[in-house]
Design goal:
Layout lengths: L1 H6 L11 H16 L6 H8 L6 H7 L7 H10 L1
Length: 79
């Protein structure tokens, strides 16, 4: 499982143009996999033990233009 968690987010690297946005994407994916509740972004922050002052950065990821949603959807359809 650890190998899957380490490798799978990397498959999406070409769909996200900025490195910082990609890193937040990877954090989000892993956080969604390990969280124990469904209380939004705070669930991810809490599950991964991320400092609360990074909450705004995580929220910003969901509104960034650096990810190509169409590219992600196409990638998922092909995989």
């Amino acid at each position: 499982m650890r190998e899957y968690i380490n490798e799978k987010p990397m498959d999406f690297e070409n769909c996200i143009s900025r490195k910082v946005a990609f890193r937040w994407f990877a954090v989000t994916i892993v956080g969604l996999m390990v969280r124990s509740d469904n209380l939004g972004a705070t669930s991810i922050i809490r599950a991964l033990g991320i400092a609360p002052h990074f909450y705004e950065n995580l929220i910003h990821f969901f509104h960034t233009a650096s990810r190509e949603l169409d590219g992600i959807i196409l990638f998922l359809d092909e995989g």
